[in-house]
Design goal:
CATH class of the largest domain: Alpha Beta
Helix content: 40-55%
Number of helices: 12
Strand content: 5-15%
Radius of gyration: 19 Å
Shape: globular
Structural class: alpha/beta
Strand order of the largest sheet: 7-6-5-8-9
Distance between the termini: 15 Å
Largest sheet: 5 strands, parallel
Bound molecules: phosphoric acid mono(formamide)ester
CATH architecture of the largest domain: 3-Layer(aba) Sandwich
CATH superfamily of the largest domain: Aspartate/ornithine carbamoyltransferase
CATH topology of the largest domain: Rossmann fold
Number of strands: 9
C-alpha cells in the first residue's frame, strides 16, 4: 500500500530531533563509505530536486547537484533571476507551481521568512541552503566532521569566534541538540539575535550542552575541542567592510588563540575563507585537512538529508 506521509522540511537543525541528527550522520557515513568504494546507492531514482538560488555558491550548488546524481536522481539549477520571481511572482505561487514538477526544493536566499513561506506553500520537502538566519546543512557537515575526528559529539566543547550571524546561529542549535557545549565570542553589538538565544535556552532544558556568550575570544576558546569561524562580512554588508575589520580584528583564529584550546583541537571553516582576517594562513594550513573534509562532508550529509526527506511519494 502506498502510504502518504506528511512531507518534512529542513529549514533549521531543530527540524530534526537529536536521534534524527545522529541517524542522518550515520547514514551519511554509510553513503560516504559506499561512494568511496564504488558502491552505487540509487535511493532517489526518478526524483528531481530544484535548486533555487538568489546568492552565489560553490559548495552548496555543486554538492547538491552531484549528490542528486549519485543518488540516481536529477538536480535543476534555478537562478531566481532567470525565473518569474524576478518579475515579482510571489513565493507562495512559486511554491505551488514547483510542487507540481519537482520532488524537493533546495533554496539559498536572504530572508528566512521567504524559506518558511516556500515550505508552507510547497507540498514537497524544502531544504534551507543558507539564509541570513541559518545554515543548517553546513552545520550538519560540521557535526559529521567532528564525529569523524573525535569519535563522539556529546560532552565536547565548541567555540565559535566571530559574527553572531547565520553560521553562529546554526552552530549554537546543532551543538546544543547533540549535547555539546558551545561558547560564542562576538564583538559587542554582534551577538546572536534574541530569538536565537530564546530558542537556545529552550533546547538547553532537554540537553546536556550549555551555551556561553561573551565578547572575549580567549574566554570562548579556553579548552575548546573545536574552534569554528566564518567571514566577518557574513551578513553581506560590504559597505562597512573597513569598520568591521577594526571591530573584528581581535576575533581572529591565530596561533596565539590556539595555544589555549585543547592540544588536539580541530578548526573548522565553512569556506570561503579570507586569510589574515578571520583566520591566519598559518592556522588555516595547519588545519586544512579537517577544513576540506568538512567541505567534502557537505556532499555526504546532504545526500543523507535528501534520502531522509525525499524517498517517499509526497505528492
Ligand atoms: N559554505 C558554503 O555554503 O559554501 P558556498 O557559499 O560556496 O555554497
Amino acid at each position: 500500500m502506498n502510504m502518504l506521509k506528511k512531507k518534512r522540511d529542513f529549514l533549521t537543525i531543530s527540524d530534526f530531533s537529536k536521534d534524527e541528527i545522529l541517524e542522518t550522520i550515520e547514514l551519511a557515513e554509510k553513503l560516504k563509505y559506499e561512494t568511496k568504494n564504488g558502491i552505487q546507492h540509487h535511493h532517489l531514482t526518478g526524483k528531481t530536486l530544484g535548486m533555487l538560488f538568489r546568492k552565489a555558491s560553490t559548495r552548496t550548488r555543486i554538492s547538491f547537484e552531484v549528490g542528486m546524481y549519485q543518488l540516481g536522481g536529477k538536480a535543476l539549477f534555478l537562478d531566481a533571476n532567470d525565473t518569474q520571481m524576478k518579475n515579482g511572482e510571489i513565493i507562495q505561487d512559486t511554491a505551488r507551481v514547483l510542487s507540481r514538477y519537482l520532488d524537493g526544493i533546495m533554496i539559498r536566499t536572504y530572508s528566512h521568512k521567504e524559506v518558511e513561506d516556500l515550505a508552507e506553500y510547497s507540498s514537497i520537502p524544502v531544504i534551507n541552503g543558507l539564509t541570513n538566519d541559518q545554515h543548517p546543512c553546513q552545520v550538519m557537515a560540521d557535526l559529521m566532521t567532528i564525529k569523524e575526528y573525535k569519535n563522539k559529539l556529546e560532552g565536547l566543547k565548541t567555540a565559535f569566534i566571530g559574527d553572531g550571524h547565520n553560521m553562529a546561529n546554526s552552530v549554537i542549535e546543532g551543538c546544543l541538540r547533540v549535547g555539546m557545549d558551545i561558547a560564542v565570542a562576538t564583538p559587542k553589538g554582534f551577538e546572536p539575535a534574541n530569538h536565537i538565544l530564546e530558542k537556545a535556552r529552550g533546547i538547553e532544558k532537554t540537553s546536556s550542552g550549555r551555551l556561553y556568550l561573551c565578547n572575549d575570544p580567549k574566554e570562548a576558546a579556553a579548552s575548546a575541542d573545536v574552534v569554528i569561524t566564518d567571514v566577518w562580512e557574513s551578513r553581506g554588508i560590504e559597505e562597512d567592510k573597513n569598520i568591521r575589520r577594526k571591530l573584528f580584528k581581535d576575533f581572529q583564529i591565530n596561533s596565539e588563540l590556539m595555544k589555549i584550546t585543547q592540544k588536539d583541537a580541530m578548526v573548522l571553516h565553512c569556506l570561503p575563507a579570507r586569510r589574515e582576517e578571520e583566520i591566519t594562513t598559518e592556522v588555516f594550513e595547519q588545519h586544512q585537512k579537517e577544513i576540506f573534509e568538512e567541505a567534502e562532508n557537505r556532499l555526504h550529509v546532504q545526500k543523507a538529508i535528501l534520502v531522509k526527506l525525499m524517498s517517499y511519494n509526497n505528492h
